[in-house]
Amino acid sequence: MSLDWVGGAAGAWLIAALVLGIAEILIPGVFAIFLAIAAAITGIAVLALPDLTAPVQIASFAIWSTVTVLIGKRWYRDYPLETSDALLNNRSARLIGQIVTVETAIDHGEGRVRIGDGSWPAHGPDALVGESVRVTSVVDGVVVVDAVEDAPA
């Protein structure tokens, strides 16, 4: 298969880099940018050394992909993104302190509560259906609740 229509192998690698870069913009949070950099480096290498064989090009891409992903991983560890909401991606921590409604009576320490539009298993003191309880923690996907003294009506 001839790659002349895209400028040869170098053009194909540079187009791949562009496509991966666009994918990163459209689907943020994916590591496509690191693969785009690796493809660009490989494309530039093929421009400089046009006699590189396909296996060498693929090996170059694999090596540069590994290097850029490791650099990116280190960068994100050393310079974490700051946010105004520290619990943005920690749904369990966001639940602590919320007052929720008992959906299935909590009997002998086990029942279910309604949180938003979902139903969660719950552990805590006995409570009847419809009572309000406060979430005190979340352990392995189970909310731990406690009685609310001044529950809203």
Question: What this model shows, in words?
Answer:
It is a multi-pass membrane protein. By secondary structure, the protein is an alpha+beta fold. It folds into two domains: 4-78, no CATH class; 91-147, Nucleic acid-binding proteins (OB fold (Dihydrolipoamide Acetyltransferase, E2P), Beta Barrel). The protein is built from four helices and five strands; from the N terminus they run ααααβββββ. The protein has helices at 8-26, 32-48, 54-78, 91-95, and strands at 99-107, 110-115, 118-123, 132-139, 142-147. A five-stranded mixed beta barrel has the order 1-2-3-5-4. The longest helix is centred in the middle third of the chain and has 25 residues, at 54-78. It is rod-shaped and about 75 Å long. The N and C termini lie far apart (73 Å).
* Largest sheet report: 5 strands, mixed, barrel
Gyration radius (Cα, Å) is 27 Å
Tell me the distance between the termini.
73 Å
Total of helices: 4
Structural class: alpha+beta
**Low confidence ranges:** none
